[in-house]
Amino acid sequence: MEKINVGIIGATGMVGQRFITLLADHPWFNVVTLAASSRSAGKTYYEAVGSRWVMDTPIPEFIGNMTVLDATEDAEKIASMVQMVFCAVDMPKAEIRALEEKYAKLEVAVISNNSAHRSTPDVPMIIPELNPEHSEVITAQKKRLGTKRGFIAVKSNCSLQSYVPALFPLSKFGITKALACTYQAISGAGKTFDRWPEMVDNIIPYIGGEEEKSENEPLKIWGKVENGVIVNATAPNITTQCIRVPVTNGHTAAVFVSFEKKPSIDEIIEIWKNYKGDPQIFNLPSAPKQFLNYFTEDNQPQIRFCRDLEGGMAISIGRLREDKQYDLKFVCMSHNTLRGAAGGAVLMAELLVAQGFIEK
Ligand code: NAP
Known about the structure:
6-stranded parallel sheet; 6-stranded mixed sheet; 28% helix; 2 domains; alpha/beta
């Protein structure tokens, strides 16, 4: 099978490095180019990333020897080499918005981890197991951009990738309100303990912009496609507190939830156990076999035990029980740079290939 040529924009960053480990040996995608800022451009990847490489496995040799290009200055050159780019950059929002549109208009499929286009109504924000049908708006988006193949699809914020997958399959019971306190790893800020020593033995009760994203983005996931745009849902009403904790990888959430028609605990565990989305049905290369994993032990899900489950693509849930203010409460977790960032983006790209939006 002929592979699809792809590029990684922001290849030197925390998410970019994850993309490299996931794509170096991918059955459908072939990494042919890497890009980052002008600081890295012109250097080999080995030179550009240097001691910033924090993945457990070494840099694949063919990647290390690639020359890093300038994401903006070399956009035309990059676009001529690829059908798709994975984009994860730390730039001002307006610049990211313009950069992603530039690539789309150069007829490249842009799979983005950035927040810049998450509220653009004809840009789908897809968690492949939950709302695969939102890709429908790509047709209208291409019309707006005047493109044949180029478009933008985005991933949602990493904070919500544990509790939204757990709550979404319970929608039929009418979720009236939910409260989520998230405990988020330092890699979510692109950091390690070496680069952020203030986080050792510490908790910071603030992550700029995170609570707004964690409360608003789920409404797009629950939204409906109408006339070429996604119309956000008005429920469930979710409130959050997002807290940075001294953990390398993995975001945990403590969740409280109430329903119009309260399901039993056994009913919910059964729904989670049996839930399958398109990635499982179509057996996509990066899909976890079991998406939602319920642990019966009182001391699970633990970050170190659960974050790498099924290549970091599975969601772990535990401690589902009655609450005296809300109907029920539970704890859940997901790997923030795998399911929550690069892995989720690769799975979304695989879904879009399976749906015919990106041609092999
Ligand atoms: P990071 O480690 O700080 O990496 C930032 C990347 O952006 C680097 O490759 C950097 O290149 C590049 N960059 C900076 N300025 C640029 C410019 N002017 N032109 C082109 N490239 C530029 O950040 P990260 O944690 O990987 O996050 C990247 C994006 O993913 C952000 O939008 C973030 O919100 C999102 N995200 C992160 C996570 C996570 O868990 N970390 C999860 C979901 C979403 P140089 O090395 O050349 O400076």
